[in-house]
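Morning run. Coffee first, then this:
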Amino acid sequence: MDKQSKKFLFDYLNNASPTGFEQAGQQIWLDYMKPYINDYIVDVYGTAVGVINPKAAYKVVIEAHADEISWFVNYIKLFNGSCT
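And here it is:
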């Protein structure tokens, strides 16, 4: 893990962003993600969404709900040229 990623993780995990008061955590996440995204959306429910290629027919969306760390991809297996 590089220093920037480690600092982000430390800052994010040590920030108080309980349900209903997610703004500070959203801002930390968005500041970290902004170099990688073209647009973002934040809603009143504590969700922050980063969008890559917002004008394209197919978009990449990176979503984070500020008071949860819910899932992650830890392995992708190629099978006959396709992800499984």
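Strands lie at 39-42, 47-52, 60-65, 78-79, 82-83. Good start to the day.
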